[in-house]
Amino acid sequence: MTIPRLTIVTCAGLLLFCADVRPAAAQLISPGELSEVHAELEGIRSCTSCHQLRSKGIDASLCLDCHVPLRMRIETGEGYHPAADATDRCARCHKEHFGREFALVRWDPSQFEHSEVGWAPEGAHRRLECRDCHTSSLVRSEQVRSFKGRYGALSRTFLGLDTRCVSCHALDDPHGDQFADRSCDSCHGQERWEDPPGFDHDEARYRLTGRHRQVACVGCHPPQETGDSPPRGTETAADLRFTGLSFGACTSCHRDEHDGRMGATCTECHTTGGWHEVGEDALRGRFDHAASFPLEGAHAEADCALCHGRPEHASSAIRIAFMLGTESRAYPSPVAEDCLSCHLDEHAGEFSELSQGGGCDGCHTQVEWYPALFDVRRHNAESRFPLRGVHVAVPCLACHPEPASPSEPRFRIGTRDACVECHAEDDPHGGQFEGEPCDACHTERTFAIDGFDHDRARYPLDGAHREVACAKCHPSETAPGGRRMVRYRPLKSDCSDCHGGGA
Asked: How much is the pTM?
């Protein structure tokens, strides 16, 4: 088929006509109006601003000549666009020539996979709306701000955000400049700000041990001094000062209760397990208690302040006297010559005349105050009243009762020799034998009289009298004090006194 020469010339002329920069001529062959954002290209530039001659569609490189910020992201592999189709990546999604009102960007945010742009929101970030983050105030890229700002599109763009936490949260960072060299996610997660899951105090410059682990953060980290500091007592962990704190010595946080009298290093005696838990190993390294007063038995378990405390111990059984020149110390040295240097003598010197001198350790040990070491054997050997018969089984307090007042000594000794001194109140005879010793009739083996010899009495028994029961002649009666007793004296001894008068 032969094409007429006129046709070839006409087509060539038409192409040359369109290639010329003539807006009116270009509009004659345009498929439609450009969108509002590209409207300035009509009447000023030719079709070749976006199209290449003898090529279908648009040339993406020409688009990126204008959209410089986007080109830079594609070149560095940032954001969403590097994953688009390289052969037709602009026109594939952004259609033109559909009029001024046509939107070049059309997409469904609910179907967008944010992880494709290099940052996946988690936790609380997933509950945010797109524009909560993609706002003009948070655009950090200067190229994007300049380009989009020039065309009034800064509020519509999704470009230019930074993935660092501080890029969005700089204004509401409660730590100020404390952690400028660390990222927020080194401690915090995206679910909630409080209780940072990534923070471990053991990795800090000061590790927490003992009771320090139970202290609230505000106990060691004071509130930051800012103009809008929260009221005292309402601070949260975010309001506190975490860096720049002094912790080289215990006194950085704690007041020295000893006012320097025990040295500057608290850990030589104390541990973080508690102020009153003094480390024994540390104490042994400082001084040897055995050199001054060996701690044995209950003394080894006693609290230090019981003997070294000020003021004097409140117990009525202990009185601490301090050695001269030590009163101003945090732990003054007590006088410890013997037991009575600290312990009050409850016996008021009653035992001072005994062979062992009346020292407490003569009867008591440092393990337990009771039972005493003064047993029956010692009672018989060292006291004036040996225990025999039923007296051996009698409790100590039965003969040595509690004193009527604290000023009286306990276990008074040395004056009771006669039975009546203990048995006056329970004398079954009601004083009938006053002045006569009990052992004239009774023994310590038993109170009952075994084989009493009536011939020793004023009225010897003979004949039938020997067969008469004792109660026939010695009746029971009520004594003046109300107790029952057997009448032994005085009794009449005439026959008529018992048998009556006969005819």
From this structure: 0.47
